[in-house]
UniProtKB/TrEMBL annotation:
InterPro entries: Rap/Ran-GAP_sf, Rap1_Ran_GAP. Pfam families: Rap-GAP_dimer (PF21022). It comes from Opisthocomus hoazin. Gene3D superfamilies: 3.30.1120.160. Transmembrane segments: none annotated. This is Rap1 GTPase-activating protein 1. GO terms for cellular component: cytoplasm; membrane. GO terms for molecular function: GTPase activator activity. One of its GO terms (biological process) is regulation of small GTPase mediated signal transduction.
Amino acid sequence: QVLGREGPFPLILLPQFGGYWIEGTNHQLSEAPESPLTPATSTRARLEGNHTAKIYRKHFLGKEHFNYYSLDPALGHLVFSLKYDEQEHLHLLLPTRARTLHDVVPISCLAEFPNVVQMAKLVCEDINVDRFYPVLYPKVNRV
């Protein structure tokens, strides 16, 4: 439809009904542990996996969760993901340059409900930021 019209053409095409899309998400998730692939030859090959992506797919992708970002002077750019589950736990994910930190915290163990910075400090005490900003996506309201 867009290309059928006269130019200039938009640089970004938003989904028809708002929201966003993620390419390459035709993953089949299972609770069974993944079996390592063994090469057919006698040579042993080491297959690397992206640990952060596996955690994100298992606990966050396709489920209601929140993403935040910030810039820490020592740790660099941070993207912090959190999710509340039906068992009243907080799932927290914080990838840094050095490592990926992931934790599950029962809400009942908290004296008061923490803000986003306090939640991030539950998984990494070294965080030195005043604020995390929500990651938002454009939503189109059609009239």
